[in-house]
Amino acid sequence: MKGRFMFTVGLAGLTAAALAGGAAAQQAAPGGAASAPNVGQMAPDFSLPGSTRYGLLRDPVKLSDFRGQTVVLAFFPKARTKG
Amino acid sequence: METYRDQYVTLFNNGKKVVVIGISTDPDTTQANWARESSFPNLFASDPDQTVAKLYGSADSKFDTRNVFVVGPDGHITARMMKFNVLSADAFTELGKYVQQTLKSSGGTDRH
């Protein structure tokens, strides 16, 4: 009984520590340039609603679907801006 | 994305073995309409919550920063150009060079 209680408390502590660590990491890198992946690293995979000039795509755009090809990811602020 | 379109053949091998994905916070319908009106040859991906922009260190408050990443056939990043200057012809030339290098499967390069 006591052992089980200790285990539960321990687990809760670990979870709290992990959450705190995550929050700290988030604070240090809120999606800004410092958190950009470097050359040589795996590009983080993603899946997003996609489109082309022919309309909306039925399937999401998934980065890992393009293995075997060179992919250029171009982030930009807003549609209908020059560039 | 106009310069990407206008130099699609030279910089991006006319889409042969090269996939260009423009990512912004715009709704997918806005991207699709803009792509149709401007005859953009590339893909667009809609990231309104900046989930992916954050993964790539490209979220600047409400909008995405113009960062460009080149991803090789094995999924590794081969080049990145932070705060890409779309008004600079040299920037596009450099991007084209990175794409060609990646197509030839050489090592990566970095530029800030």
Structure description:
The complex is a heterodimer of chains A (83) and B (112). Chain A contains 1 helix and 5 strands; from the N terminus they run H-E-E-E-E-E. By secondary structure, chain A is α+β, with helices and mostly antiparallel strands. Chain A has a two-stranded antiparallel ribbon. In chain A, a hairpin with a 2-residue loop joins strand 2 and strand 3. Chain B has 112 residues and is an alpha/beta fold. Chain B has one domain: 3-Layer(aba) Sandwich (Glutaredoxin), CATH 3.40.30. Helix content of chain B is 36%, strand content 24%. Chain B has helices at residues 2-6, 8-11, 28-38, 51-55, 89-103, and strands at 18-24, 43-46, 59-60, 63-64, 68-71, 77-81, 109-111. In chain B, the strands form 3 sheets. A 3-stranded mixed beta sheet of chain B has the order 5-6-7, with helices on one face. Chain B has a two-stranded parallel sheet with strand order 1-2. A two-stranded antiparallel sheet of chain B has the order 3-4. Chain B is globular, with a radius of gyration of 14 Å. At the A-B interface, strand 2, strand 3 and strand 5 of A face helix 1, strand 1, helix 3, strand 2 and helix 4 of B.
Helices and strands, with pairings:
The complex is a heterodimer of chains A (83) and B (112).
Chain A: H1 2-28, E1 47-48, E2 50-52, E3 55-56, E4 61-62, E5 70-75
Antiparallel strand pairs in A: 1-4, 2-3
Chain B: H1 2-6, H2 8-11, E1 18-24, H3 28-38, E2 43-46, H4 51-55, E3 59-60, E4 63-64, E5 68-71, E6 77-81, H5 89-103, E7 109-111
Parallel strand pairs in B: 1-2, 6-7
Antiparallel strand pairs in B: 3-4, 5-6
